[in-house]
Amino acid sequence: MLDIKVIRENLDWAKEKLATRGIKPEQLDELVAIDAKRREAMVQSENLKAERNEVSKKIAEAKRNKEDAADAIKNMREVGAKIKDLDKDIDELTEKQEYILLRLPNFPADSDPIGPDESYNEEVRRWSEPTKFDYAPKAHWDLGTDLNILDWDAASKVSAARFVYYKGAGALLERAVYNFFLDENTKEGYTEIIPPSLVNNDSMQGTGQFPKFTEDVYTIVENDDPEVPRNLTLIPTAEVPLVNYFRGDIIDGKNLPINVTALSPAFRSEAGSAGRDTRGLIRMHEFRKVEMVKVVKPEDSWEELEKLTHNAEHLLQKLNLPYRVVALSTGDASFTSAKTYDLEVWMPAQDTYREISSCSNCTDFQARRAQIRYRDEDGKVKLTHTLNGSGLAVGRTVAAILENYQNENGTVTVPEALVPYMHGMTKITPEVKWH
RNA sequence: GGAGUGUUGUCCGAGCGGCUGAAGGAGCAUGAUUGGAAAUCAUGUAUACGGGUAACAACCUGUAUCGAGGGUUCAAAUCCCUCACACUCCGCCA
């Protein structure tokens, strides 16, 4: 959530910034007008409340002295009614203001490439060269099916499209990848967390998924009493439980930055992406992801974003997977982010780079929504900044390994870094078919 | 799932419908004392949102906040309702 004060005091600047993210300036005018009305009503209400408190004190005194206070009580009854009306107005105005405020995206950083969509993203750097083959490389979904380590048919029977079974060496590979990620992240100073996979509405709002993106997620409805929904949602990313771990907290500044990492399932409805990436592991309703989250002091967040990005890159480097780093344009970056670097891994069969990690500095946007604060050396309480990045998407990593490490005979060489995690297995060969 | 108890500031803990932003401790900070420290004494020790003076900081003032939300009342930490969470006992269960 943006700071209404910042908008109020720098209206033109705010309009300009948010215009690059597709927000119409009139919306901010409306917001500021509501805010002005709200504050006006507050002044009136607060003056009346001050009067009421004053008179109430006198009534109390009179009662103690056994004097009559009937007139004052009668007057205050009217004042009370007025206050009630005004407070109702204030509530309505606050609600209107929140409605807009909760749906405005974060201010983009000055360094962000400006543009409405991904075509304005800027490549920052490349690591290694796209893997070369002297034959036509297979797509990972074919490799997975032919090796009998990934089974989409069974998953669509048992669950639905965009679900998958991992089998044998495939399951082992998935497990190897995330254990490797967790170990590496832990070595880099991240504390491992195992978070819950269902979270409440306050949490979804705290990290910015709600109220705007309710269609993108799966929410649990308890059938026996539809009147009282439990309001638990399957997490679309571990970012939600990791950041909300600190919701409402005042952290001792000595303990910042806090770095945490977690493996979790990620559930996404993928509403609106019908027809895109229908094959393979790229776009699933359920996948596993290792996430990294940082809670930092505001003055450190830009440096921490670079560190976070490098931590994610380090994983790809150790797996020897070619990738590039892309700075997202103002129009392409996520709702909560001020600046995002995407890591895109080379996918030979598609002859292109595909997103495998997204590292964002959310500045104080989530911290304000979730009220995550810290006490600095002077004892003052301030909002923190939060950052998050995938380290990394596990399914997509498996896909990248299959494609980049494939051999002409259809087997897949295990990346050196993963061999210990694969119990010494160096090559993935076909699994037994059961039918 | 059933029955009961509880949730107060950084922590512990008191609290009769008005004099309670909240007793009393502890902790922390500053000052005094000391050659220095301990002990002792004194003072201070919330956050949010308004308004004003002023504007890298700050000060004055109002309002709100005692798990959350609603209600009763001139007035609610205190009474009523709903919910969340914690603990205890019973039942069930990986």
From TrEMBL:
Q: Which residues bind L-serine?
A: 237-239, 268, 291, 388, 390
GO biological process entries: selenocysteine biosynthetic process; seryl-tRNA aminoacylation
Q: What are the boundaries of the signal sequence?
A: none
Give this protein's Gene Ontology molecular function annotations.
ATP binding; catalytic activity, acting on a protein; serine-tRNA ligase activity; transferase activity
Annotated SUPFAM superfamilies: Class II aaRS and biotin synthetases, tRNA-binding arm
The record describes its quaternary structure and partners as: Homodimer. The tRNA molecule binds across the dimer.
- Note what the entry says on domains: Consists of two distinct domains, a catalytic core and a N-terminal extension that is involved in tRNA binding.
Q: What is this protein called?
A: Serine--tRNA ligase
Please name the source species: Lactobacillus equicursoris DSM 19284 = JCM 14600 = CIP 110162
Q: What is the lineage of its organism?
A: Bacteria, Bacillati, Bacillota, Bacilli, Lactobacillales
